[in-house]
Amino acid sequence: MSIRYGISRLLATALLLAGAGIANAETIRVAIGTQDTTINCATGGLLIRELHLLGKYLPHTGKYKDATYDIQWKDFTSGAPLTNEMVAGKLDFGAMADFPGSLNGAAFQKAGKKSVFITVLEGSIQGSGNGIVVPLDSPVHSIADLKGKTISVPFASTSHGMLLRAIKAQGWNPDTDVNIITQAPEVAGSALKAGKIDAHADFVPFADLFPYRGIARKIYDGAQSNAPTFHGALVDAAYAQQYPEVVVAYLRAALEANRLLAQDPEKYSLLIQKVTGIEAPVDYLYHGPLGVQTRDLTWKPEYRQAVATAIDTLKLLKKTDVNLDAKTFVDDRYIREAFKESGLDYDAALKNYAKQPLVANDAQTGKPISDFNDVAQVWLDNEAKVHNYATPAEAFASLDKLPSSDAVRAVYVHDHASGLKLFANQAWYVRDAHGAITAFLLKTVADQYAQRVSGSVVNYAAAKTSAAQALAAR
């Protein structure tokens, strides 16, 4: 169905309200602000741009018959400067998280304008993606060890909200029981290496990127706060009213980017690395099967609540005094139409909470993997595809058989307690009396499990050695 005839009644009404319509020879600007290094925005920016997807969907019929498009892209490292340019009329679309997105809506409202959140791009209803890391040699193993310590965080970010919730859950006063300072990710990396801070809380992908680069250790995942978080896309409401079909076209491009990423996450993780410098294994941690977050373009109730929570928290932090209405700030009409015109069922997707599934055979046995609680993966430097294993022990044993010339790009395991995907060298392991190896994010949880199964807690190196010895004994 064409955009001309498939546009929904609501969007058609919005178009009529736009006034005189579009002159045939009009040049329509489509200016999009991206956050390339915030990798869970990839389907709303980087991939659309790099794969030239937007032009496939921009309308060229009816009022748009002779229109031309001036597509502009501008990359940002955070949401605040992106918002400034949107409010100034220099950008039409922007991708950012729930907290800076809410500040975007408040800034528009304060300027006598309006922006709307039109889609989620990627998120976690539990809160994964945000996290807290500590220096490698720190004695800290959980947030309970941070009382009286200095914790840095990008202020007014979604990770700031996570940190405040985590502190509240400990029964602490954030003003007296910890010392919270503001620090951008690029500054925090150096501070962690130098031991100048006790911990750093951050958003995607830094809570996983710093550990991957060997400068920090993750001790808290946002899922422990059980507070939804997401990144999504916004649009200037006046622009959307004037060009609703263009908004739908942008969202159809995002849906295609999402489909392509699901089909070949390794390929597009390498593309994200090429563009951003964020290593492909970190990108795959999010975008591969059973990833840290779910690529979900529907407005689930939990994500709507995340917006409302962000607005309330930002007011509490005195970052805004605007009474932004979350119910009208979130507008799902455009993404519903994009689903419809793409031949997809929005309501079915709205009900689906599953992560991208893993459909694979065990690389060792050849049998289909059916139990995903303890699945593990190995990605070699010289191979395009990840190898999948039913257990960490199988994956670790396979490493011992590799030729010395084969470099390992990454090894992944899953936290036995939560299912959270982890880098294997960042996990703790329980080795039971039968030689089975089980992975955990937190040492405290691993200790508890070890007591139940009469096992021992070991680090990654010891777990690999144990798996190799078990293989040799067969």
From TrEMBL:
List residues of the SsuA/THI5-like domain.
109-267
User: What span is annotated as the signal peptide, if there is one?
Assistant: 1-25
Query: Carries keyword tRNA processing?
Result: no
Keyword Signal among record annotations? yes
Q: Which Gene3D superfamilies match?
A: Periplasmic binding protein-like II (3.40.190.10)
Entry's InterPro entries?
A: SsuA/THI5
Q: Kindly state which keywords UniProt assigns to this record, in alphabetical order.
A: Signal
Name under which the protein is recorded:
SsuA/THI5-like domain-containing protein
Species of provenance: Paraburkholderia nemoris
